[in-house]
Specification:
Chain C: Residues 67-100 form the 4Fe-4S ferredoxin-type domain. The complex is a heterotrimer of chains A (564), B (420) and C (441). By secondary structure, chain B is of the alpha/beta class. Chain B has eleven helices and 24 strands. In chain B, the strands form eight sheets. A five-stranded parallel beta sheet of chain B has the order 14-3-2-18-24, with helices on one face. A four-stranded mixed beta sheet of chain B has the order 1-17-16-15, with no helix packed on it. A four-stranded parallel beta sheet of chain C has the order 4-3-5-6, with helices on both faces. In chain C, strands 8-7-9-10 form a four-stranded parallel beta sheet. In chain C, strands 1-2 form a two-stranded antiparallel sheet. Among the domains of chain C are: 24-109, no CATH class; 117-157, no CATH class; 326-440, 3-Layer(aba) Sandwich (Rossmann fold). The chains are: A alpha+beta (564), B alpha/beta (420), C alpha/beta (441).
């Protein structure tokens, strides 16, 4: 008898987590994602590894889950995590009573805490406001969602799973009231993305289908006439050019808007807001949201008022609450998650939907969901995802500084090690020559080539894996270098199309930062791309009368070609 | 006590330099004040006049006939086509033999390092053998450790453009190896100094490696890194060794052709008698009765006054620092001159990266004498603007980089000089 | 096109109570990655292991996190010429970034028991060495001139044997000043000069920062400056003072530099309060007080001192009508080739001398152009950097060879040491030329 088969829809943290979990239990898995991995909410979070402190007053169940998973992720995903520590900062206008509640709540949830005086806080974080009262220190950290999702997907593949990105589920196949498979449209055929390659449609059958499409879970459910009431709620995040803080900074007040700064890689991310939207793909991205975020956060860290922002982006939380709960404000809806068995709920066997929850608890969500699916499939296997490190995090990924740096200078080598974890040697040992391709983030050719191996011509995926083009110039100086790395494995036309997509994606977020230094940068980038390269009016599509142009003095006068 | 001159030009880019040269040529005692190095190092070193007409994506061979189609607020419309010719004449005199293109009124098409082609009016001598209207077959050569220019990909792109010759790209290893983060200037200097390597010198070995991949092509293009201070010697030697023409493909910043252009223009300004002051910014001014009386230089905490009868503002756009912005307002940075811009910041850009953006045209408005205006009102009767500090045009999209600066620089500088 | 001063400047914050641990990451916000700084770096030109200022400055800072104490060791190769600061079109505080990174490297990563460290410590504290040497100038000169001493210096301390130690003047400038009657007689002479010039009722007074070199070695420069300024009516005071700190900055010894900066800011700050402007004849000294102190040290009064600190030629250019003064001059001076010191360029005083003398009868003055001499304070005094130093200087040496001038003219004593070493030219200071033009003729 062949192994039981499943399809997981959605390549966010939950989807790849479920795929990994099931694959490790010996289940045949096909994961389908319509964009690249983290295309949805996972790629649009603030990068915070919660200690749970944020939920310790209002949602203690989520808080405890966060703390447990926080510890597990430090073990299994060490190369995706930076344990920065976090602070809940009390400003003069913030309530003493709430501060006490927060402190006690953390203790009740098993979150280690320490109260720090204003002087102690300013010593650690000198760019915070001198007006602050005090703070609670908690074990918050930063996590890279891209690296984490890719590592989960790679692990799943290593355990036999098939991962298909740029493959959109267009229908659920229902036979006799049972979901038996999906119809999927591969944008450029099955396998890794190649710009310009022809698309194809495939029908895939499986013993069970898991809907982990996040904000899109309702749309998937509707394909089998099922109601999955996901409430999409948007939140804005703004990326600063440098880290003004090195710890996660939370404002110590009842959960609300614009109250977190997360030091993420080379940047700091300001977050966020919470507002229900109709459509997770199409909602207004407004100036007032960005301005509000900067103004609010400047109260806690005044330097932010005039600091350079690189871009802003919006994430859509797929909130869910059981029918009839009736919460009015989206920020009050639980961050708990739900595994919906459509056989029990809707008499439609073959499909399980997982909704709600938070990024940090993705693994536990995946475990519960996989437990459920295995129960349905009659598979008797233990979950091992909490114990087995993800690819890149083996040996704790704490590598000695004395190791060979492959000629890289110390901060570049350090950053490479942090990104690649235990894969550092494998990836960098092959590159010769290995020039730096992205100066801002210190990404070398070897790392780009490694990412291209799995991402194909999807430069946005290459970017997410390596951070190339995510620094100060937002790809102004390196986007075309990234595209050049695709050639000659992929032809010029495909590389050009991939580059065009990267330019558009980089612009999409950067336009929200278009003032001051980033406006200057955009002007410089525009001059390089449009004037020096003529990318904007590239005459590949028009017919040029070459003879009407100056062919040089040689041709004009019959002199030698150099015009001497 | 203020330091006095007849004409004071603020800004040391191509607009400032051409203004200063034009003013000095009228006999006026002229000073040019520049804060730091100019932004010419960001530029390709090509001098574009006008490559495209509005709303037409076919490159134009005749830059002048498209000028007539430009809107009234375009700086070319203010100064007229003859001023463009005068500006180019000033340029031709200033750079002499270092540039080509003056033999023809038509634009030339030059290969870009992306593999596209771009219409331009003047090009460095080192770029001349690479023109794409010349139908000789071409080999592009990239260096495997230099990531900015991928020769095989650029060659394929040129073929996609439909150039009238065969073009191939090859990648070779540079004779000397550098650390991973070496800039193009490092390669240029190794060629300048013709450093010794195992099998000879850098120039010799590079020529050998290119010869090994050269087929029937009659010309070979390299990224623009063939030497800095001795670039003509480097290129000539490679040409002699290979027996074919050698040219440079202009690249992005830091751009050696752009820096060479800066040097050439500074030499010309000095020859014209321009007095040059650099290192500190002009930050403020005093005015009286609609005239600028003096401008104030900040020398790290204290201010020094410079006085003249006529002033030229050539401080550039947002990149050069002449235009500054915050989340609400865009304005000129020394005199606080107004810059027309949509009130809503989200109308400063288009959602498409190549769309019709407002921000790319930010700059001051001027009258026909290039005096900055607010509405219709001239702000200072003795202040003129030149170059990218003027708004109402997007040099990158229309391919008029340097051309507008030369034309407006010529007009602003010579008018200022004649009034003293 | 010039990049104008930004209205908002970031305030670097002390990460820890320690002077060297500053957080300069916010300064990276100004960088647009254009790489122009790379094209002017003299070290990057000759030393391929040196990545250049873009990496050393904004890139390295941006990649650094608070817990990362390791800075790339290549920062030790930076010679602190500040040419990257001069070139940057965006006001990125490159010099400051290099200074702080280098100080962190020297403090946390360099072996403090090494010969190199001890040698650097000696060079950094040149003021003390100079003081000792100048106590017995003839003996010092004889000893430093001995081949055996040079050999020992190289082997034991890592000074290049190719270089000869600068001679000590037989009398320090301070000794001369004091013999001459000090501050009191200066006030008298200046008052007489003002009367002769019809400038009664005008307050013209300056405090002279002579630094180490003009005190121990080039005392003629300081004396020319005194005679010139007094003839124009300036009362001069010469307070007790410490080394400006330039060699300490260059060797990453910021704690030492902070010590001298505190003393100098204290002394010269009170003089500023009393209405004195501050003048130095050495462009590295004036740059230290004017630019490096306020960039690196949060000392009471440091901004006041900085904004009143002038280069000696610049001060006269700004405050006197020198063009009128020079209008009738006919100067008997050998044909000269001027070399603008990098530290003069970063302050914006380059070009004043050539401009002033362009039309003066009897003066023939050419220019070496925009090149670094390669000695850069203490850099060329290290045997491991001697070759780089000479290779950097090669372009300047050639420029001197090609120019028609018979003597060299420069403000910087270190440039002049390198010019003498590399070309054999006699080197004069613009103060001497101005004295000849305005006092003697």
């Amino acid at each position: 008898m062949s192994e039981p088969s499943t399809i997981v829809i959605g390549g966010g943290a939950t989807g790849v987590g479920i795929a990994r979990d099931l694959a490790m239990r010996g289940v045949d898995v096909t994961l389908l994602e319509k964009g690249n991995l983290t295309h949805g909410t996972s790629g649009r979070m603030h990068g915070m590894l919660h200690s749970g402190g944020r939920y310790a007053v209002t949602d203690q169940h989520s808080a405890e889950d966060c703390m447990t998973e926080n510890r597990i992720l430090r073990d299994i995903a060490s190369h995706c995590v930076e344990m920065t520590g976090g602070l809940f900062v009390q400003m003069p206008e913030d309530d003493d009573e709430y501060f006490q509640q927060k402190l006690e709540g953390c203790r009740e949830c098993g979150i280690p805490v320490e109260v720090l005086s204003a002087e102690e806080v300013l010593e650690m974080e000198p760019y915070l406001s001198e007006d602050l009262e005090r703070a609670i220190q908690v074990p918050d950290g930063a996590i890279d969602p891209f690296r984490l999702c890719v590592a989960n997907a790679v692990s799943a593949e290593n355990h036999g799973a098939r991962i298909e990105t740029h493959s959109e589920v267009t229908d659920l196949l229902v036979e006799d009231g049972e979901v038996v498979g999906v119809e999927v449209e591969h944008k450029s055929g099955a396998g890794s993305r190649v710009h310009g390659a022809a698309g194809e449609t495939e029908e895939i059958y499986a013993d069970h289908v898991v809907n982990a499409a996040g904000a899109w879970a309702g749309e998937i459910g509707a394909m089998a006439d099922l109601d999955v009431e996901v409430i999409p709620a948007k939140g804005v995040m703004t990326i600063m050019n440098v880290r003004q803080v090195d710890m996660v900074i939370n404002r110590c007040k009842p959960r609300g808007n614009a109250d977190i700064i997360v030091p993420h890689e080379t940047t700091a991310i300001l977050g966020t807001t919470d507002e229900e939207v109709e459509d997770p793909e199409d909602f207004p991205e407004e100036k007032s949201e960005v301005d509000f975020l900067i103004e609010e956060m400047s109260k806690m860290a005044p330097i932010l008022e005039d600091a350079r922002t690189l871009r802003s982006y919006w994430g859509v939380r797929p909130l869910y609450e059981p029918p009839g709960t009736g919460t009015e404000e989206t920020e009050q809806i639980t961050r708990n998650y739900f595994v919906l068995d459509h056989d029990d709920r809707d008499d439609t066997p073959g499909l399980t939907t997982v909704v709600g929850g938070k990024f940090v608890t993705y693994r536990k969500m995946a475990e519960d969901c996989a437990d459920h699916v295995c129960g349905r499939l009659g598979v008797d296997a233990e979950c091992r995802t909490a114990d087995e490190p993800l690819p890149g995090s083996e040996d704790g990924a704490i590598l000695s500084d004395a190791m060979d740096r492959y000629g890289l200078r110390s901060p570049l080598a350090r950053r490479n090690k942090q990104r690649l974890g235990s894969r550092y040697d494998d990836v960098l040992s092959g590159g010769d020559p290995n020039p730096v391709v992205c100066d801002c983030e210190g990404v070398t050719r070897a790392e780009i080539q490694d990412a291209i191996e799995s991402a194909g011509t999807d430069l946005n995926s290459v970017r997410q894996q390596t951070r190339a083009s995510m620094g100060t110039c937002q790809g102004g100086t390196c986007a075309h270098r990234l595209a050049a790395e695709l050639h000659p494995e992929y032809d010029e036309e495909a590389a050009r199309a991939a580059l065009e997509e990267l330019y558009q994606e980089r612009w999409k977020g950067q336009r929200h930062a278009l003032w001051g230094e980033q406006l200057d940068q955009a002007t410089l980038n525009h001059a390089l791309h449009a004037s020096t390269m003529n990318r904007d009016r590239d005459p590949t599509d028009v017919s040029v009368d070459f003879e009407s142009f100056d062919a040089g003095r040689a041709v004009a006068d019959g002199g030698d070609s150099d015009g001497n | 006590m203020a330091i006095e001159d007849d004409v004071l030009v603020i800004g040391g880019g191509i607009a400032g330099l051409s203004s200063a040269i034009a003013a000095a040529e009228t006999g006026a005692r002229t000073r040019l004040i520049t804060h730091k190095q100019s932004t010419l190092g960001n530029a390709s070193g090509l001098v574009d006049v006008l490559g495209y007409a509005p709303d037409d994506d076919t490159p134009r061979a005749d830059p002048y006939d498209a000028i007539a189609q430009l809107p009234a607020e375009h700086p070319y419309s203010k100064v007229g086509a003859d001023a463009v010719r005068e500006g180019l004449a000033l340029f031709d005199d200033a750079v002499g033999d270092r540039y080509r293109g003056s033999h023809s009124a038509a634009n030339a098409l030059v290969p870009t390092h992306a593999g596209s082609v771009k219409p331009t009016a003047r090009y460095p001598r080192s770029t001349a053998p690479g023109l794409v209207s010349d139908d000789r077959d071409m080999l592009l050569v990239g260096i495997d450790s230099v990531t900015g220019f991928d020769a095989p990909m650029a060659a394929d792109h040129l073929s996609a453009v439909g150039v009238p010759f065969d073009v191939r790209g090859e990648t070779v290893r540079f004779p000397k190896s550098f650390p991973q983060d070496a800039d193009v200037t490092r390669y240029a200097r190794a060629l300048d100094r013709d450093e010794s390597v195992d099998d000879g010198t850098v120039r010799e070995v590079l020529a050998d490696r290119v010869e090994a991949v050269l087929e029937d092509e009659r010309r070979v293009g390299f990224p623009a890194m063939l030497g800095d201070s001795r670039h003509e010697a480097v290129r000539t030697e490679l040409q002699d060794r290979l027996g074919v023409d050698v040219f440079e493909v202009p690249t992005g910043p830091p751009s050696l052709p752009g820096l060479r252009l800066e040097d050439a223009l500074y030499d010309a300004a000095e020859d014209a008698g321009v007095r040059i002051t650099s290192g500190n910014p002009i930050v403020d001014f005093d005015a009286d009765g609609g005239r600028v009386q003096q401008v104030l230089m900040d020398r790290l905490g204290s201010e020094v006054a410079y006085e003249a009868q006529q002033y030229v503002l050539a401080t550039g756009g947002p990149v050069g620092g002449g235009i500054e912005s915050d989340r609400d307002v865009v304005e000129e940075s020394i005199f606080g001159l107004p810059v027309e811009h949509p009130e809503d910041r989200y109308e400063w850009f288009d959602d498409d990266v190549w769309g019709d953006h407002a921000y790319t045209e930010f700059g001051v408005s001027v009258d026909d004498d290039l005096r900055p205006v607010a509405g219709e009102e001239v702000q200072f009767e003795n202040l003129r603007a030149a170059g990218n500090v003027i708004g109402g045009y997007d040099f990158a999209t229309e391919k008029s980089g340097c051309g507008v600066s030369l034309a407006t620089g010529y007009v602003a500088g010579s008018e200022a000089g004649e009034l003293t | 096109m010039s990049k104008q001063a930004e209205s908002e400047t970031f305030d670097p914050v002390d990460l820890f109570p320690d002077a060297t641990d500053m957080d300069l990451r916010p300064g990276v916000d100004k960088c647009d990655k254009n790489g122009n700084c790379e094209t002017v770096c003299p070290v990057a030109e000759v030393n391929e292991d040196f990545p250049g200022p873009k990496f050393q400055g904004p890139e390295q800072w941006r990649l650094t996190r608070k817990g990362d104490i390791e800075f790339d060791e290549s920062v030790d190769k930076c010679l602190n010429c500040m040419r990257c600061d001069t070139a940057c079109t965006n006001d990125v505080p490159l010099g400051q970034m290099h200074n702080v990174a280098r100080a962190n490297y020297v403090k946390n990563q360099k072996n403090h028991a090494s010969r190199e460290y001890l040698r650097n410590k000696m060079l950094a504290n040149y003021g003390t060495l100079g003081k000792l040497g100048s106590m017995m100038p003839r003996i010092s000169n004889a000893v430093f001139g001995l081949g055996a001493t040079r050999w020992l210096n190289e082997k034991l301390l890592g000074f290049p044997s190719e270089r000869s130690f600068p001679d000590f003047a037989t009398q320090t400038f301070r000794g001369w000043w004091s013999d001459r009657g000090g501050d009191a007689t200066s006030a008298e002479r200046a008052r007489e000069a003002r009367e002769a010039r019809g400038e009664t009722g005008v307050d013209k007074k300056i405090a002279f920062f002579h630094g180490c070199y003009a005190n121990y070695h080039q005392t003629e420069v300081a004396k020319s400056m005194v005679r010139l300024y007094e003839s124009l009516g300036y009362e001069i005071v010469v307070p007790e003072q410490s080394c400006c700190g330039t060699p300490m900055f260059a060797n990453g010894m910021l704690d030492d530099a902070r010590g001298v900066a505190e003393e100098n800011v204290d002394t010269f700050g009170s003089l500023v309060e009393d209405g004195y402007d501050l003048v130095a004849t050495c462009t590295s000294c004036s740059m230290a007080l004017r630019k490096e102190y306020p960039e690196l040290f949060d000392i009471d009064g440091v901004e006041e001192v900085a904004s009143h600190m002038f280069d000696a030629v610049e001060y006269l250019r700004v405050n006197e009508d020198l063009e009128a003064e020079l209008a009738g001059a006919d100067v008997d001076f050998p044909a000269m080739t001027y070399h603008a010191p990098c530290h003069g360029e970063v302050m914006g005083v380059e070009g004043i001398v050539t401009e002033l003398f362009a039309d003066v009868d009897g003066v023939e003055l050419d220019d070496t152009g925009d090149v670094c001499c390669g000695l850069a304070g203490t850099y060329g005094w290290k045997d491991e950097k001697y070759d780089d130093s000479m290779e950097i200087g090669a372009e300047m040496f050639e420029a001197f060879e090609e120019a028609p001038g018979e003597v060299a003219l420069t403000e910087c004593p270190m440039c002049s040491a390198q010019i003498e070493h590399g070309t054999g030219y006699e080197v004069r200071h613009p103060m001497e030329l101005l004295e000849t033009a305005l006092v003697e003729s």
